[in-house]
Amino acid sequence: MTRRFLLIAGYAPSLINFRWHLMLALQEDGFEVHAAAPSLSADSEIHQRLVAQGIQAHDVPMQRNGMDPLADLATLKALYRLMRHVSPTHVMGYTIKPVIYGSLAARFSGIPFRFSLITGLGYAFIEDSMTIKRRALQRCIEGLYRLAMACSHTVFFQNPDDMQLFIDRKILGKTYAVVVNGSGVDIEHFGVTALPDTPVFVLVARLFASKGIREYAEAARLLRQEYSQVRFQLVGEPDLGPDAIAPAELQAWLTDGRLEYLGQLDDVRPAIASATTVVLPSYYREGIPRTLLEGLSMGRAIITTDTPGCRETVQEGYNGHLVSPRCVISLVNAMRRMIEQPDRLQAMGIHSRRIAEERFEVTRVNTVMLEEINAI
Asked: What domains, with CATH codes, occur in the chain?
């Protein structure tokens, strides 16, 4: 019997950026691999790369943001039809909508082996300053997750805090759960590079507020008053959601000279190579941020928040510093230590690389997932 694995994404580029090595590992393990995502048309570059690798690509309608019941119902129906057509033996979705609607469609379709990958909980699960609207959204999402977990045989989490939250809120139920070390990082592709001679900080993230971008911009403004030679760079894709940084706000930061915006980059290695420290003051509910794994792999010191997903990448004082979420002063103090003690950066970078090799190397992560996939 042919083993077919259907991987469902909510954003087509993530198949290449985050799951490419997993799909290759599945192929090496003997699976016929299928990938489904929105905007995965036959003439797209991503579609062509998948097909060239022998991965069958399928376009499914799915809104990346928002909760439109009719649109989400169309997604569920499309996934059900796809599964009836492909007849996969194994299905796994990652990110919220593929997990929820992929799991439901797989159950309705009678797929024998069903998996979910929780890559963080996102904006709806930021607990502080919770509005009535966001509380209602969170409860709705929790209910949908509860249904999805009941349809899954195994759920993979990328940090223990997310798994514990699902247990505490009785979302997980009796479904078997495993924590893996994020999405992993290709330590050969993200190789160590020499440090610049002068302090340079870089933040790589989609441009929404809960990634800590406003705190980073304010810290840059304060520090430039003391250290005019220090540079603060920002890399990321503009966002259209309710938490997005408005273009006018970004432009104001660029105009007053506190930040350098490098835009959205297909390859972030030059930006990380040009920096001495990778910064992510996120209070978003991360899985384990890929940008921090890339910074580790390239031998950079890390400054990030003491929050789920982020804290897994830093051993305080060993390869970087953990700061309080939403706290500009905490961030400024950590960045000042990097500026005033540049001799520590080389050792921290070496330690970061060691952490990447020992915990986050992509083959190690995928091996754990494949063992669990083949165990049921």
From this structure: 4-184+361-375 (3.40.50.2000), 200-360 (3.40.50.2000)
3-state class (DSSP) for residue 329: helix
Tokens 């505490």 -> residue: 168
Position 112 pLDDT exceeds 90: yes
CA distance 278 to 216: 12
In angstroms, the CA 6 to CA 13 distance is 16
- Measured in Å, how far apart are the chain's first and last C-alpha atoms? 16
pLDDT of residue 67: 76
Q: Looking at the predicted structure, is the pLDDT value of residue 235 above 70?
A: yes
Whether the pTM exceeds 0.70: the reply is: yes
CA distance 45 to 217: 34
250: left (phi over 0), alpha (psi -120 to 50) or beta: alpha
Residue 267: φ, ψ to 5° = -125, 110
| Separation CA 374–CA 376 (nearest Å) | 6
For 79, phi then psi, to 5°, come to: -65, -40
What does the alpha-carbon distance between residue 308 and residue 319 come to, in Å, rounded to a whole number?
18
AA letter at 357: E
Question: How far apart are the C-alpha atoms of 293 and 355, rounded to whole Å?
Answer: 9
How many Cβ atoms sit within 10 Å of the Cβ of residue 347? 12
| pLDDT tens track for 31-71 | 999 999 999 987 789 999 999 999 999 999 998 877 788 99
